[in-house]
Amino acid sequence: MEKYRRQKQRIVFVHKQVERYLRENEEMTIPEALEQLYLTRVAPLSLRMKY
Fold this sequence. Notes:
- By secondary structure, the chain is an all-alpha fold.
- The protein has helices at residues 2-24, 30-50.
- The chain has a domain at 16-46.
- The N and C termini lie far apart (31 Å).
């Protein structure tokens, strides 16, 4: 059950961030918003975890 809850939290986080990016830039597409999320949140985290 805990695993499901964490997954749900991640989904909600991604959804809210993408919506925020789209509100801030009306010309941005969903794939661009997802890429922005990856570049600002996921990639830096993965770099920190390597060391």
